[in-house]
Specification:
Shape: elongated
Strand order of the largest sheet: 1-6-2-5-4-3
CATH superfamily of the largest domain: P-loop containing nucleotide triphosphate hydrolases
Number of domains: 3
Distance between the termini: 58 Å
Number of strands: 6
Amino acid sequence: MYYDLRNLRENIKKGDFHKVYLIEGNEPYLKQKYAKLLADSVVPAGFEAFNKHVLKGEDITPDEIMTCVEALPVMAERTCVFVKDYPFSDSVEDERKKFLTLLSDLPDTCTLIFWQDTKELSGRSDDIKEIRKLIEANGAVCTIDKRSDSDLIKYILIECKRRERQIDNSTAMYLIETVGNDVATILNEVAKLCSYTKSISKEDIDVICVKTLEATTFKVVDALLSNNFDMAFSQLQVLFEQKTAPELIIGSIASAYIDMYRVKVAESAAKGYEGIKGAFSGVYKSPYRLNNASKRARKYTVLDLRRALEVLGVADEKCKNTFDDRTVIIEKLIIELAMVRKHK
């Protein structure tokens, strides 16, 4: 069967454990949290020494896993074999066959957990498909991906309440926009903010939190839109001081203009958020990013935005094909973007 995070939580709470789990996805903090919670729930506290087997690393073999899986539980209902980053895609043919045999005949006395922290079970080979099929048939494949903005806001509100601090939804969303959507990063920044003040404001976030590349480049774009060129170059200087790769800076600025262009074209075709979301599946998980793009795009025409994207493309090409000082290319890019709305 296939689980999302909610299904996995319910399964752990009920204690009705399967023979095998595959925990994968692109949200590392939550993968680790719930993989370990699952393993700790399978084996009662105090009985881990004989009943919990932890294997990790690229050198894990099917024989090692099989030896642990076949071990009988001691004073417990079942054992747990906890495998981190099993190299599914790197296994040789003989090991794959042994692994498929193992998954086809798992004992009722063991729960086998594959936690893919840095290695994903990816690929379209018949073996990979069969592995997934066997895990789904005998247990559960649980994909834990980046959370939606609404989920992240809930995490922030709950964490602030636990620490007896106050923050509203709008400020929580601003925090996400500033530090990114990685749960571990958000919780670390919330801890810093809670130590700093009892009532968290956007100004506090600006002072305390480490901003993502995206957040800083959006400030550059916003400064350009308001004709505040000192602010644009000030934010650009922050990125230079952080040793941010020039191509990443250009790519992030381009992302903001691509969002604006998509919104502008969609609006001209009378298509809203759902239309853009459908056309770019997986890119826009919430309307927040597009709402911001829509506000920024009001100061541009479609032709303006096409011109901006052309300028960005030229700068990107120059940046990748020169040994000269690339910061100069980016500074010139900012001036050219500032002139886009005046270009007729």
